[in-house]
Amino acid sequence: MDFAPIQMIWMRDLIRFTRDRAQILGAIARPILWLLIMGVGLGASVPRVGDTPYIEYIFPGIVALNIIFASFLSAISIIWDREFGFLKEILVAPISRFSIAIGKALSGTTVAVLHGSVVIVFGLCLRLPFTVGEIALALPVMALMAFVSTALGILIASRMTSFEGFGTIANFVIMPLFLLSGAIFPLDRVPPWLAGVARANPFTYGVDLLRGIFSGVMHYPIWMDVAVLVGCGVLFVTLAVAAFKRME
To answer: How far is C-alpha 124 from the geometric centre of its chain's CA atoms?
Structure first.
Protein backbone atom coordinates (compact mmCIF):
# COMPACT_ATOMS: atom_id res chain seq x y z
CA MET A 1 0.00 0.00 0.00
CA ASP A 2 1.39 3.40 -1.03
CA PHE A 3 0.98 5.94 1.79
CA ALA A 4 1.89 9.02 -0.30
CA PRO A 5 -1.44 9.25 -2.20
CA ILE A 6 -3.35 8.48 1.00
CA GLN A 7 -1.61 11.36 2.74
CA MET A 8 -2.18 13.67 -0.24
CA ILE A 9 -5.93 13.00 -0.32
CA TRP A 10 -6.12 13.19 3.48
CA MET A 11 -4.36 16.57 3.71
CA ARG A 12 -6.21 18.04 0.73
CA ASP A 13 -9.58 17.41 2.34
CA LEU A 14 -8.38 18.71 5.73
CA ILE A 15 -7.21 21.95 4.13
CA ARG A 16 -10.60 22.28 2.45
CA PHE A 17 -12.29 21.81 5.83
CA THR A 18 -10.24 24.56 7.50
CA ARG A 19 -11.35 26.95 4.77
CA ASP A 20 -15.04 26.06 5.06
CA ARG A 21 -16.43 28.49 7.64
CA ALA A 22 -19.97 27.17 7.29
CA GLN A 23 -18.92 23.65 8.29
CA ILE A 24 -16.94 24.98 11.26
CA LEU A 25 -19.94 27.07 12.35
CA GLY A 26 -22.18 24.01 12.05
CA ALA A 27 -19.82 22.00 14.24
CA ILE A 28 -20.23 24.62 16.96
CA ALA A 29 -23.92 25.47 16.56
CA ARG A 30 -25.34 21.94 16.22
CA PRO A 31 -24.35 20.60 19.67
CA ILE A 32 -25.34 23.86 21.34
CA LEU A 33 -28.84 23.64 19.88
CA TRP A 34 -29.29 19.94 20.62
CA LEU A 35 -27.91 20.06 24.16
CA LEU A 36 -29.91 23.15 25.06
CA ILE A 37 -33.16 22.11 23.38
CA MET A 38 -33.06 18.40 24.21
CA GLY A 39 -30.87 18.35 27.30
CA VAL A 40 -32.26 21.39 29.07
CA GLY A 41 -35.72 21.64 27.50
CA LEU A 42 -36.76 17.99 27.47
CA GLY A 43 -34.68 17.39 30.58
CA ALA A 44 -37.12 19.59 32.48
CA SER A 45 -39.85 17.01 31.75
CA VAL A 46 -37.61 13.93 31.97
CA PRO A 47 -35.10 14.90 34.64
CA ARG A 48 -33.38 11.50 34.86
CA VAL A 49 -32.98 8.22 33.03
CA GLY A 50 -32.37 5.74 35.81
CA ASP A 51 -29.76 7.39 38.00
CA THR A 52 -28.36 9.57 35.20
CA PRO A 53 -29.44 13.20 34.65
CA TYR A 54 -31.05 13.47 31.22
CA ILE A 55 -28.54 15.96 29.82
CA GLU A 56 -25.73 13.55 30.75
CA TYR A 57 -27.70 10.66 29.28
CA ILE A 58 -28.08 12.26 25.85
CA PHE A 59 -24.56 13.72 25.78
CA PRO A 60 -22.95 10.66 24.09
CA GLY A 61 -25.72 10.75 21.50
CA ILE A 62 -25.03 14.41 20.68
CA VAL A 63 -21.35 13.52 20.24
CA ALA A 64 -22.41 10.75 17.85
CA LEU A 65 -24.77 13.10 15.97
CA ASN A 66 -22.00 15.63 15.35
CA ILE A 67 -19.69 12.84 14.21
CA ILE A 68 -22.23 11.37 11.79
CA PHE A 69 -23.13 14.75 10.29
CA ALA A 70 -19.46 15.67 9.83
CA SER A 71 -18.65 12.30 8.27
CA PHE A 72 -21.39 12.59 5.68
CA LEU A 73 -20.45 16.20 4.90
CA SER A 74 -16.89 15.02 4.31
CA ALA A 75 -18.09 12.27 2.00
CA ILE A 76 -19.86 14.81 -0.19
CA SER A 77 -16.38 15.89 -1.35
CA ILE A 78 -16.49 12.85 -3.66
CA ILE A 79 -19.38 14.40 -5.59
CA TRP A 80 -17.59 17.76 -5.57
CA ASP A 81 -14.43 16.15 -6.93
CA ARG A 82 -16.40 14.34 -9.63
CA GLU A 83 -18.18 17.56 -10.59
CA PHE A 84 -14.94 19.49 -11.09
CA GLY A 85 -12.86 16.71 -12.61
CA PHE A 86 -10.46 15.99 -9.75
CA LEU A 87 -11.90 12.54 -9.13
CA LYS A 88 -11.39 11.60 -12.77
CA GLU A 89 -7.74 12.66 -12.51
CA ILE A 90 -7.01 10.49 -9.47
CA LEU A 91 -8.96 7.55 -10.90
CA VAL A 92 -6.76 7.50 -14.01
CA ALA A 93 -3.59 8.11 -11.97
CA PRO A 94 -1.48 5.12 -10.83
CA ILE A 95 -3.24 5.10 -7.45
CA SER A 96 -5.12 2.10 -6.12
CA ARG A 97 -8.83 2.47 -5.43
CA PHE A 98 -8.08 1.26 -1.91
CA SER A 99 -5.72 4.21 -1.34
CA ILE A 100 -8.35 6.65 -2.58
CA ALA A 101 -11.02 5.20 -0.28
CA ILE A 102 -8.70 5.10 2.73
CA GLY A 103 -7.49 8.67 2.12
CA LYS A 104 -11.07 9.90 1.99
CA ALA A 105 -12.03 7.84 5.04
CA LEU A 106 -9.12 9.14 7.12
CA SER A 107 -9.79 12.76 6.24
CA GLY A 108 -13.46 12.36 7.08
CA THR A 109 -12.57 10.59 10.31
CA THR A 110 -10.24 13.40 11.36
CA VAL A 111 -12.82 16.09 10.63
CA ALA A 112 -15.57 14.14 12.41
CA VAL A 113 -13.45 13.64 15.54
CA LEU A 114 -12.83 17.40 15.60
CA HIS A 115 -16.60 17.94 15.39
CA GLY A 116 -17.16 15.46 18.21
CA SER A 117 -14.50 17.19 20.30
CA VAL A 118 -16.44 20.44 20.01
CA VAL A 119 -19.34 18.74 21.80
CA ILE A 120 -17.03 17.63 24.61
CA VAL A 121 -15.68 21.17 25.02
CA PHE A 122 -19.23 22.51 25.18
CA GLY A 123 -20.13 19.81 27.71
CA LEU A 124 -17.25 20.95 29.90
CA CYS A 125 -18.54 24.52 29.61
CA LEU A 126 -21.88 23.24 30.95
CA ARG A 127 -19.93 21.70 33.86
CA LEU A 128 -20.87 18.14 32.99
CA PRO A 129 -18.85 15.85 35.28
CA PHE A 130 -16.30 14.39 32.86
CA THR A 131 -12.69 13.66 33.70
CA VAL A 132 -9.59 13.94 31.54
CA GLY A 133 -9.27 10.15 31.66
CA GLU A 134 -12.81 9.67 30.36
CA ILE A 135 -12.19 12.08 27.51
CA ALA A 136 -8.96 10.25 26.62
CA LEU A 137 -10.88 6.95 26.50
CA ALA A 138 -13.66 8.51 24.43
CA LEU A 139 -11.38 9.82 21.66
CA PRO A 140 -10.50 6.41 20.11
CA VAL A 141 -14.17 5.40 20.30
CA MET A 142 -15.10 8.62 18.52
CA ALA A 143 -12.45 7.90 15.88
CA LEU A 144 -13.85 4.40 15.33
CA MET A 145 -17.40 5.73 15.01
CA ALA A 146 -16.16 8.45 12.65
CA PHE A 147 -14.39 5.91 10.46
CA VAL A 148 -17.53 3.76 10.23
CA SER A 149 -19.82 6.68 9.37
CA THR A 150 -17.33 8.18 6.90
CA ALA A 151 -16.94 4.84 5.13
CA LEU A 152 -20.74 4.57 4.93
CA GLY A 153 -20.94 8.13 3.60
CA ILE A 154 -18.28 7.39 0.97
CA LEU A 155 -20.16 4.27 -0.08
CA ILE A 156 -23.35 6.28 -0.59
CA ALA A 157 -21.61 9.27 -2.23
CA SER A 158 -19.82 7.02 -4.71
CA ARG A 159 -23.22 6.04 -6.13
CA MET A 160 -24.61 9.59 -6.27
CA THR A 161 -24.28 11.99 -9.19
CA SER A 162 -25.65 15.20 -7.64
CA PHE A 163 -25.38 17.16 -4.40
CA GLU A 164 -29.17 17.23 -4.13
CA GLY A 165 -29.45 13.46 -4.41
CA PHE A 166 -26.78 12.89 -1.81
CA GLY A 167 -28.36 15.43 0.55
CA THR A 168 -31.72 13.70 0.32
CA ILE A 169 -30.28 10.25 0.96
CA ALA A 170 -27.98 11.53 3.72
CA ASN A 171 -30.86 13.09 5.66
CA PHE A 172 -32.86 9.90 5.21
CA VAL A 173 -29.95 7.89 6.67
CA ILE A 174 -28.55 10.21 9.36
CA MET A 175 -31.64 10.84 11.47
CA PRO A 176 -32.72 7.18 11.78
CA LEU A 177 -29.13 6.23 12.65
CA PHE A 178 -29.16 8.89 15.37
CA LEU A 179 -32.67 8.36 16.72
CA LEU A 180 -32.37 4.56 16.75
CA SER A 181 -29.00 4.48 18.50
CA GLY A 182 -30.31 4.91 22.03
CA ALA A 183 -29.08 8.50 21.91
CA ILE A 184 -32.18 10.19 23.33
CA PHE A 185 -34.23 7.38 24.87
CA PRO A 186 -33.43 3.99 26.46
CA LEU A 187 -33.79 1.08 24.06
CA ASP A 188 -34.96 -1.28 26.79
CA ARG A 189 -38.27 0.58 26.93
CA VAL A 190 -39.22 0.36 23.25
CA PRO A 191 -41.24 -2.38 21.48
CA PRO A 192 -39.23 -5.52 20.65
CA TRP A 193 -39.38 -4.92 16.89
CA LEU A 194 -37.95 -1.41 17.31
CA ALA A 195 -35.25 -2.71 19.65
CA GLY A 196 -34.35 -5.24 16.96
CA VAL A 197 -33.94 -2.45 14.41
CA ALA A 198 -31.76 -0.53 16.86
CA ARG A 199 -29.54 -3.58 17.37
CA ALA A 200 -28.86 -3.59 13.62
CA ASN A 201 -27.64 0.01 13.85
CA PRO A 202 -23.83 0.13 14.29
CA PHE A 203 -24.02 3.50 16.04
CA THR A 204 -26.08 1.94 18.82
CA TYR A 205 -22.85 0.27 19.91
CA GLY A 206 -20.79 3.44 19.57
CA VAL A 207 -23.23 5.41 21.72
CA ASP A 208 -23.25 2.52 24.21
CA LEU A 209 -19.46 2.67 24.47
CA LEU A 210 -19.43 6.44 24.96
CA ARG A 211 -22.20 6.26 27.55
CA GLY A 212 -20.27 3.56 29.38
CA ILE A 213 -17.20 5.80 29.45
CA PHE A 214 -18.99 8.97 30.58
CA SER A 215 -21.67 7.58 32.90
CA GLY A 216 -20.74 3.94 33.54
CA VAL A 217 -24.03 2.65 32.06
CA MET A 218 -23.78 0.06 29.27
CA HIS A 219 -26.24 -2.39 27.71
CA TYR A 220 -23.74 -4.52 25.77
CA PRO A 221 -20.31 -5.99 26.58
CA ILE A 222 -17.36 -3.84 25.53
CA TRP A 223 -16.07 -6.54 23.18
CA MET A 224 -19.40 -6.62 21.35
CA ASP A 225 -19.51 -2.84 20.91
CA VAL A 226 -15.96 -2.77 19.55
CA ALA A 227 -16.44 -5.85 17.36
CA VAL A 228 -19.57 -4.45 15.69
CA LEU A 229 -17.93 -1.09 14.97
CA VAL A 230 -14.74 -2.66 13.60
CA GLY A 231 -16.70 -5.16 11.53
CA CYS A 232 -18.94 -2.46 10.04
CA GLY A 233 -15.92 -0.25 9.32
CA VAL A 234 -14.20 -3.05 7.41
CA LEU A 235 -17.43 -3.93 5.57
CA PHE A 236 -18.21 -0.35 4.51
CA VAL A 237 -14.64 0.36 3.36
CA THR A 238 -14.59 -2.88 1.36
CA LEU A 239 -17.86 -1.94 -0.32
CA ALA A 240 -16.61 1.61 -0.94
CA VAL A 241 -13.44 0.29 -2.62
CA ALA A 242 -15.60 -1.96 -4.80
CA ALA A 243 -17.77 1.05 -5.70
CA PHE A 244 -14.66 3.05 -6.67
CA LYS A 245 -13.53 0.21 -8.91
CA ARG A 246 -16.80 0.45 -10.83
CA MET A 247 -16.51 4.22 -11.31
CA GLU A 248 -15.50 5.59 -14.68
So the answer is: 21
